[in-house]
Amino acid sequence: MYFLLNNQLLDIAAEVEDLATEAARERRQTPTLYKAVQIGQRLLYSAGSFDTANPAIVRRMSATIALASEANAALFVTALNATSARDVAVRLGSMPLTTVAYLHRLQERGPLTAGVINRDVWGQVAVDVPLKVEARA
Length: 137
Description:
Blueprint: E1 2-5, E2 8-11, H1 13-25, H2 33-47, H3 55-68, E3 73-78, E4 88-94, H4 97-109, H5 114-122, E5 127-128
Parallel strand pairs: 1-3
Antiparallel strand pairs: 1-2, 3-4, 4-5
Helix pairs in contact: 1-3, 2-3
């Protein structure tokens, strides 16, 4: 299973399986979309880039988003004048498998560019996944 996080197509199959196994074993639900998005916002705000964040945390956060929604793509963007993780904007989407395969082939040749991502994903995304998350007390 692949998940596009900003400019990287991540293989999150192992993380998805681990989360599902943990949830079944402990008889609990997987973390919520709200929690996964919050983690992503904090990671990007503190690290400045997902490239410099802990890769295991990045993959697990991506897997949680995938399990908690129909999304297979997420875009996190920090505002220039950001003062907290809440200033990180988030967009989720669902790409067709043909786009995932195309991006996989491109990424094998080199890093994905913002132009390719914007044109082939966010310009063509099949479904914008609504980010309906509510804070839990």
